[in-house]
Each structure stands twice: as C-alpha cells, then as structure tokens.
C-alpha cells in the first residue's frame, strides 16, 4: 500500500494539492513529507487490518451480507462516475478512480468473498475516521456544519487542501474525497492481507 500511497502523497504535496501545517509537526521531513505522515501509513492501516481481522474472527455471520455486497457495487459505480465527471480535479479524479478500480477488480475479476466483510468494517470505522480526520483537517471540526460547503472558511488545519482539486464538499471539515481515498487505501491493504494470510480460524 505504501508503495502506491507514499509516491502519490509526495507528488501531490510537491504540487500544492495538499500540505501540512508545520506548527503541528516535529519538524522532521523526508521527501517533503513530515515524519508523522510516513508513520500514518504504518499505524492507520495496521489498526484497520487488526479491526478487520477481529471482525473476521468474531463474526459468525455478517449482518445483512447481501446489502453490503450491493453497497460495494454502488460504491464502485458512484466512484467511477465521480472520477469521470470531475476528471480535471486531481485529488477527486485519482482517489475515486483508484477506489472504483479496486472495487471492480474484486467484484468482476476476483469475485472476492471477503468484500462484504470489508464493506461492513469500513462503514463501522467511518465514525472514528471522521472524528480523527476532522481534527486533522479542522482542529475544532465540530464547529462546522455536518454537510459543509463553506470550505474556504475552515480555520486551524493540521492538513490543508487546495480546494481547486477536490469536490469542495466536507463532512464537518473532512473532504468527502477522503472517504474514497480511505477506502482505496484500506482495500489495497486488505487485498494483500487476504492473499498472503496463512493463519486459520480457531475451531
């Protein structure tokens, strides 16, 4: 996952599509990224894979499994449409296209049986995702409207975004594009986790 997302992050940071407030970093940078950003791509995916693994062990049956399978199809189609319609906005285009591509890969080519579990897990972690990402994208994120179009007036930010390259729609202070970005990041990680997993469930 880092082999894809770190070069993407370095490129977009260099192009000014997003960036970091040095007030909130320790000042150590490598390839234009603060050390905290490098650690993000270790800690967050690991925590989410651990959550996914716990669900796979503890859940005897995924609630409304077919519903989550349909949601995967809906997410794939919607992300593809957004990528096509907003192809001139770099963050929107790349995040939604990657997310759509990975979903269609699992739906049409691999026909992955774990996709319903992944969608269930992702919807569950959206709550802590929005809370933590809210702090990153607007320190006092709770002061903004839940559906926020007034993106130019978000004040104190740890991670800032160039709004010319996203949908200019936020959940509180979180760009809506981050949901596709996060899904792609975690699905890519889970894809390899499932492929190379060698342990078995306890009987």
Model description:
- The protein has 203 residues and is mainly alpha-helical.
- It has one domain.
- The chain is built from six helices and seven strands, in the order αβββααααββββα.
- The protein has a three-stranded antiparallel sheet. It has a two-stranded antiparallel ribbon with strand order 1-5. It has a two-stranded antiparallel ribbon with strand order 2-3.
- A hairpin with a 2-residue loop joins strand 2 and strand 3.
- Helix 2 runs antiparallel to helix 5, helix 3 packs across helix 4 and helix 3 crosses helix 5.
- The protein is globular and about 45 Å long.
List keywords for this structure.
two-stranded antiparallel ribbon, single chain, 203 residues, 3-stranded antiparallel sheet, 6 helices, mainly alpha
Low-confidence stretches: none
- Protein structure class: mainly alpha
Question: What number is the mean pLDDT?
Answer: 92
Number of domains: 1
């Amino acid at each position: 996952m880092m082999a894809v997302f770190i070069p993407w992050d370095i490129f977009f940071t260099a192009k000014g599509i997003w960036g970091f407030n040095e007030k909130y970093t320790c000042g150590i940078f490598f390839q234009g990224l603060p050390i905290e950003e490098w650690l993000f791509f270790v800690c967050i995916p690991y925590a989410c894979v651990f959550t996914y693994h716990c669900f796979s062990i503890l859940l005897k049956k995924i609630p409304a499994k077919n519903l989550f399978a349909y949601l995967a199809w809906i997410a794939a189609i919607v992300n593809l449409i957004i990528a096509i319609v907003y192809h001139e906005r770099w963050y929107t285009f790349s995040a939604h296209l990657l997310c759509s591509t990975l979903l269609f890969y699992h739906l049409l080519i691999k026909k992955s049986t774990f996709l319903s579990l992944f969608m269930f897990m992702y919807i569950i972690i959206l709550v802590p995702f929005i809370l933590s990402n809210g702090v990153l994208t607007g320190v006092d994120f709770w002061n903004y409207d839940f559906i926020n179009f007034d993106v130019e007036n978000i004040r104190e930010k740890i991670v800032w975004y160039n709004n010319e390259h996203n949908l200019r729609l936020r959940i509180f202070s979180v760009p809506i594009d981050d949901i596709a970005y996060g899904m792609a990041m975690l699905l890519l990680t889970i894809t390899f986790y499932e492929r190379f997993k060698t342990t078995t469930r306890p009987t």
